[in-house]
Amino acid sequence: xxxxxxxxxxxxxxxxxxxxxxxxxxxxxxxxxxxxxxxxxxxxxxxxxxxxxxxxxxxxxxxxxxxxxxxxxxxxxxxxxxxxxxxxxxxxxxxxxxxxxxxxxxxxxxxxxxxxxxxxxxxxxxxxxxxxxxxxxxxxxxxxxxxxxxxxxxxxxxxxxxxxxxxxxxxxxxxxxxxxxxxxxxxxxxxxxxxxxxxxx
Length: 201
Prior knowledge:
The protein is of the alpha+beta class.
């Protein structure tokens, strides 16, 4: 099984495309090469695949990257399933993971939520989607400053609060306050729960 994330940028028409698209490309390149592992298409939509146990952390890395830019957000559809056909271009690959993810993004556009997951197990979907709806009440309201700190923590889990304070030219206590406001410890716990539930599929 693999995880496929299909997403689109919310409010992309009101932002400097060159800034967000360059940053998103740089992030996705950490996880594989384009167009085999990821692609950006139709202007502000993207798709990539990853291991199932990494998918929540990958989602948060993208969410925090985009939220760290003023007025931007991202809609993310997570599909877990098989890859029956692997093309040289991810957008031409196929399997249940791709079908789940693609259809789910269309559903998200109509229901107003910013993240959802679809697997072949309805009970797992129910549990994880309730969790995502609750946690998104936080994620969707991250300030630029909070999103920047979260992104650094996700991308470099060995980074210290002292390092973060230097990077953002703020005090260590300010870093600590931002992490507390973002419920970072709870985010780490949620990631562990996500991995456990998906490993049971």
